[in-house]
Structure to design on (541 residues):
């Protein structure tokens, strides 16, 4: 009898330990931007070695924290803080030079969770749908270029300029205008650069009324217009004007 | 008596220390060299203000290490991804080959020669001595949960398709924290808590409590090296029964018991060689034993 009780207690201990498992949920509540080359099987393949974070030349790749449940320590990109530069270095002449033959995170990945993508603009613009992060989309009501004909940062900074980001929609035939940014979701890999450079952000709008918010010269140029578009759009609108779809 | 003193033995411990220090230095140097030297984020790439980023081809830590696309990986990582993704990625299999062969032939020498957490715990032995003098004993009996935790992780990986062994692997946790500190100047709560609890448990519960009773990857490596050929052996005739080897063993395995009976826990021995170094009579030596004889 005593022996039986002991085993039952042991069994209860182990059952209690197993009860923790559902708490470590595998389902992540908030969608995350994975590095480029992550397929649908990414969570199953990633062994959290952290090599992609070390390989990233611009330190764009971060690791998820405890709130991600069982997906803790898997890599993600926060484009509003550091976008993916697609392993390009832009020189003073304005031309991009590739850093290495492949995108470095995919090259470093030991399990193939991040696929190797050749660092060539033609290839990067035609990545299959499954391995893109999330295409960008543009809200024309918030866009300074569409509203005031005065911006175009996303177009100039896009690593896949004239492929993923066009200076005007294909069916737009108004002569004499400036940049009218238009995202082509077929070619957009979802690096988040447009997200990063878009000046339509809350702190820039607030800086008009608050003296303590320090802005760069670049941001100061747009501050008044940003305040106007955000004020017109109301509170519930998602910022900035160009954002990755899953953010 | 004369042959005891005349015998100047070749000691293993200094070489082991050199390797351990080297591993720790590499773990510190890799993230330090790969970090971006300047805070470039507010600049605009159109203005050409980005400095040339560091592009060294050495990444990783003890879980998975790569130098110029020559990759070495922990044997358990391939088991983990295989169970969760149900496919085997060939480059990972190639990377695992050398560590797997070494583990099968020589036992879990990873724990004694390469593991940075094991190194820190060996240094922690001095702290333990001070604590035991203060009366904080280390005799809390803890059962061997290594295989239970390992199987829990693997079952979780199989059912939920998420490999979780790397989250609880202590040396990889240390390596990942170092990466995080240098790259993003932050530490993760779960990793820091794990490392701190390992050190505290090592000081209070028992010597190398984590390594011999909780560490799932240590348990997995012990299972892989169960039928290893490199083992310590005791020559009965030379033993003077001084008990130095029993005192020096960090896992409290009592190697002197090898003489009296055969109840030696081979899965806990990691071939560190401390008992061999401490023997004044040279009675303990490494031997190659074929698994058939056991």
């Amino acid at each position: 009898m005593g022996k039986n009780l002991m085993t039952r207690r042991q069994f209860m201990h182990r059952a209690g330990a197993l009860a923790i498992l559902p708490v470590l949920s595998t389902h992540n509540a908030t969608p995350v931007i994975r590095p480029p080359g992550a397929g649908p099987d990414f969570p199953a393949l990633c062994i959290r070695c952290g090599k992609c974070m070390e390989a990233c030349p611009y330190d764009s790749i971060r690791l998820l924290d405890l709130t991600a449940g069982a997906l803790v320590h898997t890599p993600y990109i926060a484009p509003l803080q550091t976008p993916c530069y697609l392993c390009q270095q832009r020189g003073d002449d304005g031309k991009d030079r590739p850093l290495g033959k492949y995108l470095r995170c995919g090259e470093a990945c030991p399990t193939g969770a991040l696929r190797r993508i050749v660092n060539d603009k033609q290839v990067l613009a035609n990545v299959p749908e499954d391995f893109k992060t999330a295409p960008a989309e543009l809200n024309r009501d918030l866009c300074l270029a569409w509203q005031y004909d005065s911006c175009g940062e996303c177009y100039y900074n896009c690593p896949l300029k004239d492929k993923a980001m066009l200076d005007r929609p294909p069916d737009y035939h108004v002569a004499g205008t400036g940049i009218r940014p238009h995202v082509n979701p077929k070619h957009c890999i979802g690096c988040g650069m447009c997200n990063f450079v878009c000046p339509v952000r809350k702190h820039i709008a607030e800086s008009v009324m608050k003296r303590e918010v320090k802005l760069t010269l670049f941001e100061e140029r747009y501050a008044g217009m940003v305040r106007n578009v955000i004020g017109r759009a109301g509170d519930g609108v998602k910022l900035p004007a160009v954002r990755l779809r899953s953010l | 008596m004369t042959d005891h003193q005349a015998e100047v033995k070749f000691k293993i411990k200094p070489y082991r220390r050199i390797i351990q220090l080297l591993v720790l230095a590499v773990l510190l140097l890799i993230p330090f060299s790969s970090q971006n030297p300047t805070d470039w984020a507010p600049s605009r790439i159109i203005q050409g203000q980005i400095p040339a980023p560091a592009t060294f081809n050495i990444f990783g830590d003890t879980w998975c290490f790569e130098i110029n696309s020559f990759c070495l990986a922990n044997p358990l990582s391939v088991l983990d991804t295989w169970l969760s993704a149900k496919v085997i990625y060939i480059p990972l299999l190639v990377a695992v080959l050398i560590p797997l062969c070494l583990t099968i032939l020589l036992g879990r020498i990873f724990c004694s020669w390469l593991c940075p957490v094991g190194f820190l715990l060996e240094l922690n032995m001095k702290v333990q001595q001070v604590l035991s003098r203060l009366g904080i004993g280390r005799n809390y009996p803890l059962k061997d949960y290594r295989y239970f935790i390992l199987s829990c992780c693997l079952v979780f990986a199989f059912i939920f398709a998420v490999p979780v062994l790397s989250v609880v692997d202590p040396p990889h946790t240390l390596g990942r924290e170092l990466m995080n500190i240098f790259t993003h100047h932050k530490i993760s709560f779960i990793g820091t808590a794990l490392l701190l609890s390992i050190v505290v448990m090592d000081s209070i519960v028992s010597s190398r409590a984590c390594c011999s009773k909780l560490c799932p990857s240590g348990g997995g490596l012990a299972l892989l090296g169960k039928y290893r050929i490199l083992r310590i052996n005791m020559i009965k005739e030379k033993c003077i029964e001084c008990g130095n080897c029993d005192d020096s063993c960090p896992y409290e395995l009592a190697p002197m018991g090898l003489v009296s009976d055969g109840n030696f826990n081979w899965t806990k021995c990691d071939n560190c060689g401390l008992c061999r170094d401490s023997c004044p009579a040279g009675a303990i030596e490494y031997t190659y034993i074929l698994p058939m004889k056991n």
User: Anything to note?
Assistant: The CA atoms of residues 85 and 161 of chain B lie 6 Å apart. Confidence is low (pLDDT under 50) at residues 39-48 of chain B.
